[in-house]
Structure prediction request, 343 residues.
Amino acid sequence: MKFLKKVGIFCLGAGLILGCCVLAGGCSFSNGKRIVRIAHGQSETHPEHLGLLKFEQYVEEHLGDQYDVQIYPNELLGSSQKAIELAQTGAIDFVVSAAANLENFSDIYEIFSMPYLFHSEEIYRNIMSDTQYMEQIYQAADEAGFRVLTWYNAGTRSFYAKKPIYTPEDLRGMKIRVQQSPASVSMCKAFGAAASPMSFGEVYTAIQQGVIDGAENNELAMTNNKHGEVAKYYSYTRHQMVPDLLIGSLKFLDGLTSEEYDVFYEAALLSTETELKYWDEQIEEAKQIASEKMGVTFIETDMELFQKKVSSVQQNMLDQNKSIRTFYDHIQEVNKKSQQEGR
Ligand code: GCU
Prediction:
């Protein structure tokens, strides 16, 4: 770290004020400031990008003489899986990724891919907002080389395709893109469809070219990622709520003083607050834009039919992955309590 700071100072001293960017050991300096790279896969208008701008603003307000936060949207630094690997090595400092992409690094994250895990969006949001409880889960990824700092709402996932899906039978034989998560592949198979895992950035072209028949995601994928241009039927199966997570490389975080860490952590919490606010606004708009401007038909389904199809998936996951049990029980407790309270 000290050496790297010296490299930055050297750049300044050499008069290379603009564009002086030294790449050393994976991290860069520009004008004497450590560049903090954040990678994500959404566009610049997405709630997560807006949340990250708040992160940048807060960090630079407090530590702007030392750190220059740079946000790279649209998978510019690679797909989520690639970006996580880069964070492990320290080449990227932060990544926003769906929890599903962490399954391959730390198996507790598989829990979020379990179909019909949370009984409502309210329960999901309350559990994810319980920062103290979630810390225990986030710590689990430390051994993989990164620390989860906070979460972002990524809504509820449902299927969308070139043809309407009303019942699980309609899914039979269809080729559906799922996230690169073993649990989502099992879920998709249990629904009777053929699972085609691929990175998010590849989905639009894959539907357009007929490589797949459809995908599954929240409604923003239809507008913000333009999938509504190529898939005209969105069927509310509401089968998963998979949060996105802000992941920090331990190579970076471990080098911070505790005061600096607190600034980055506070910035992360603020980014979530901002993201959640924009999320609620944009999700309503997305439905309207997709149906009125893009000609997407939204279909309500009998969710119980879909739920029955994947009921064995939950049990199989619990049998095969012991690390998810405690968190699963906690979620069930909250589900039960809110049912008793009539919510
Ligand atoms: C959502 C989520 C992304 C994720 C994507 C996916 O859009 O916000 O982080 O990459 O789903 O299905 O891959």
Remarks:
- Residues 41, 80, 98, 154, 179, 200, 217, 221, 244 surround alpha-D-glucopyranuronic acid (CB under 6 Å).
- The CA atoms of residues 114 and 314 lie 6 Å apart.
- The first helix runs from residue 2 to 13.
